Amino acid sequence: MCKWGTDELCLVPMPPELSFTGEFRWAIKGVDACIAPIVNALNAAGIYTANCCCGHGEAPGWIMLHDGRAILIDNPADATRNKPLPFDDL
If 0-12 CB within 10 Å is exposed, 13-18 middle and 19+ buried, where does residue 3 land? Predict the structure, then answer.
């Protein structure tokens, strides 16, 4: 996992409800560098991402998708394995 603030700029989808135009559009946003390749690959494949965090060694990483599903990014050797995720209480 990368340090907080180590971002890579990525082209990400903005759904209408989050877009200042009120329409779907693409925007350049900072994404944690260690998961940016995964976010880019998902978006390129038409699996649109909504938000993400690598966990920065404090918690497992995750990528939320536009359809409401979440992808967990876990490292079995990582001590954060049993920490709660930010969306566990949803």
Answer: exposed
- 0.90 exceeded by pTM: no
Measured in whole angstroms, how far is the alpha carbon of residue 83 from the centre of its chain?
A: 18
H helices of the chain, where? Answer: 36-44
Cα 88 from Cα 90, distance rounded (Å): 6
CA contacts within 13 A on the Cβ side of 49: 25
Span 45-78, pLDDT tens digits: 999 999 999 988 788 899 999 999 999 987 666 6
56: nearest Cα among 37, 28, 75: 75
* Residue 84 to residue 25: CA distance in whole angstroms: 32
- The type of residue at 23 is E
